[in-house]
Amino acid sequence: MRKKDRPAPQVAGKNSHTSTHVWKPWMEVVLFTLFAGWMLVGMNSDYLFTVQERSLFLDNQVFFDEMMAVPAGILHWAGCYLTQFFYYPALGTSLLILIWLATYGVTLKAFQLNPTWSHLALIPITALLCSTIDLGYWIYQIKIPGYWFSESIAMLLVMSGVWLGRSLHGLWRYLWLGIWIAAGYPIMGWYALFGAVLTAIIYTLESEKGVTGLYRFMPLIYTIALIGIVPLLWYYHYNQIRLEDAWIYGFPKFENKDSISWVTTAPFLVMAVTCAALPFCPKWTNSLKGIQTILVRTVVLAGCALATWMANFDDYNYQSEMRMYRHTEEANWQKVLMEAREWKETPTRQMVILKNIALTNLGQMGNQMFHYDNGSKLPHKRDNIAIHLVHTAADLLYYQHGKLNFATRWAIENGVEYGFDVSILKILAKCSIVSGEFDAAQKYINLLKLTTFHRDEAEHLENFCHHPERIAQAAEFKNIKELYTHMDEDLDSDNGLCEMYLLHNFSNTMNVDSPLLQEMTLDYALISKNIQLFWPRFFQYATLHNGKDMPIHYQEAAYLYGNLEKSVQINNMPFDRKVVNRYLQFSNQTQAYIQRGLNDEQIAEIMKRNFGDTFWWFYFFCNNVESY
Fold it and tell me: What is the pTM of this model?
């Protein structure tokens, strides 16, 4: 080959498509899939399981009709169905990622992004990933059915509509916009209007060379006119929406009577702004060359990763609460305590109560109650959402204490306010079984049998309706039945403070017929640190358990109270020598640190190392408990 015939060498940075030969869209697909899979399954599997427990899909016409009573009903119906698959977090995650990858591919086509700029299509699906894992405690108060899938399905439909609309020409484009808005609104609500605006922007940009003046903006003007009219017409069809919500119905909003969260809405705002900017990208990206494209890609990819990492609600107690709730619901007491032994920070009150429930069912409260952290930390939150035990776990906590009327009250109240879900139906069914209301139990069980993954559990509960004689001896009902039988079931007011009500109610209860209930009243007397409530329950416990060893924590409390107040003589009580010796060590060391001028916090931290497993440390140093 002659020298002049040789091709000129390519210089890096001179060709705008140089980076295309190095970077391919499939690389982004692989990276996103691995990253999203790790964020969802690797870091949030307990959260995803809780998601399906706090959601509901029923395979019947009534449920379908209820969903269809508002715009975007079919979207939410499909979202509720797919959310069930988080029963197996990896399965649900796989389905969700497939939807996102399909959205990514259609977005490339819809906005004609060449491989060099394919990373821009990652921004919308990254926003969807963020919206899935940033909810935090909104999971207990969200009012959007099927949220975890419905928003992603909507975006896939929007991008598909833009892609199809772009392939049309002439008057067909105007016909398509009319059909899309008129037929899409009942299917997608706000998303149909959003997709129409994106399509109209593309039509307007593509008419730049052939049309001038106002006619250039006719697609956009036409679309805006339809958006003003169509939702208004549909409003008269639906009777469950407000007129002011007609144009934004379906846009994810997080609000209750106390607060509005813009933090959890932010991903959807980012997604909307990005999609509105994508029609301008082909023209803008043509002006960038070589290293500039690499720099933009790096910034976009790093920004997506960082935004997702920051959006992830990875509070330890938040996840631990979910694991302990699940183990308690399954009566897996050893796993509850295993979780408690691995606490990495001060627990929330919900975690402490669930730990105590496990110890009670294993008969270990008197010996191990203070072997675990009994401190107090309010749930972590990013915004001004009000978090209360009555919303997160009150029905389960009351149920486990045999307070079935309270459990039923809060299950129904939360169901009416935020929507009935699998967790609520299970509590209602169990409460009805224990109280002997089998017709009511059968109604809840029949609903559970209409779900995809809870039919076996529903049939298990149904057996107790057919064989009531098995209830009292069944391990899952035995203690609850005993407490319910021997306890006052009047439904008074807890003022929305579940823990305070349980503490006051049990510590002030006296019972001689049920050893289980009597011991629980003694446990709550210890927790309340009330000497006057402790002594009668202590002596009653000793009478009911005559000849048996007195649990260590009860001895610790009796020895401390006997030394603090001389109203009860303890000299002749058979205390373990170990208890007496440890108390003397505790008292002497505490006095020594006080004389050295240390404050209460410093003393508490030092004494916790050797005496954190005693009632004495709890009595003096575990203060300012914050119920919520």
Answer: 0.91
